[in-house]
Design a protein that fits this description.
Elements: E1 3-5, E2 17-21, E3 36-40, H1 57-72, E4 76-79, H2 95-107, E5 114-118, H3 125-136, E6 142-145, H4 154-167, E7 172-175, H5 183-186, E8 192-194, H6 212-232, E9 238-242, E10 248-252
Parallel strand pairs: 1-8, 2-3, 3-4, 4-5, 5-6, 6-7, 7-8
Antiparallel strand pairs: 9-10
Helix pairs in contact: 3-4
Length: 257
């Protein structure tokens, strides 16, 4: 089954696969009826000019990860904090070395379902390939591709997913925030992906949503687009479906259909 993770607005707490950033939005998971959730480290702070995580971050994040894993068990994963190189207004020097440093530290924090991020220099496939080799040394059960979130280069996105699968052929591979245009090309290589891009309409001239009604409208329109892409993917065996009661469920589909 391919999993699509997102963070719906409060109007829908029944969506089964949730992704929420630390240190604030992850608290929504407490009231959600999720099947599985991923908590990420909130790299959006780098989009606002920050060069590193706050001094308090690591101790609090690790404490939360251990505490919530005790509560939710295998239903929740935590992403090891990484350093992206695709915020072009705020390049992070030595982002790969910094990411690997965090991986080494967090690898020693036991009893947490860590997701190991893979980073690279901007649009550099050799760099991504080398990072995969480094992350392999930690024998992770799940990894995440951190190089495709802000990228619109479909060839690069597809190549990263292919390379990741070549290195991690039995592990769960998650892709952070790929554009929907890339999804048909990368579905054969990944197990899950996420996005909260439903806040922007795909209809020309509408732009971002401005109120709760538009948020709900955009959200379900986005899910329908995801559903169509999955439906067109002939190896897909389960689809996300929007029910009449506006809740979300998974529906089995015969592979022959």
């Amino acid at each position: 089954m391919k999993r699509f993770y997102t963070l719906p607005e409060p109007f829908n707490n029944k969506y089964p696969f949730l992704l929420a950033p630390f240190p604030n939005k992850h608290k929504r998971l407490r009231t959600a009826n999720f099947k599985h959730a991923i908590v990420d480290s909130g790299v959006e702070l780098f989009a606002h000019g920050k060069k590193d995580y706050p001094l308090w971050f690591h101790s609090r994040y690790q404490h939360t990860a251990k505490q919530w894993t005790e509560i939710y068990g295998d239903r929740i994963w935590f992403v090891i904090p990484d350093y992206p190189d695709d915020y072009r207004n705020n390049p992070i020097e030595n982002n790969i070395a910094k990411t690997l440093r965090n991986i080494k530290v967090y690898h020693e924090v036991k009893d947490v379902n860590w997701v190991y991020p893979i980073q690279s220099d901007y649009l550099n496939l050799q760099s991504f390939h080398d990072s995969c080799h480094q992350v392999m040394k930690f024998n992770p059960e799940q990894v995440a591709i951190g190089t495709v979130c802000k990228c619109r280069n479909l060839d690069f996105i597809e190549a990263c997913c292919k390379i990741a699968r070549q290195h991690f052929y039995t592990q769960h591979i998650h892709a952070f925030g790929p554009t929907l245009s890339a999804l048909p090309r990368i579905l054969p290589f990944i197990d899950s992906w996420d996005s909260t891009a439903y806040f922007c309409s795909r209809e020309s001239g509408r732009g971002k949503c401005h109120n709760q009604k538009e948020r709900e409208e955009y959200y379900f329109a986005y899910l329908k687009r995801v559903n169509k892409i999955l439906n067109d993917f002939h190896c897909q065996t389960r689809l996300l479906e929007v029910n009449n009661d506006t809740s979300i469920s998974t529906q089995e589909k015969n592979s022959s259909s």
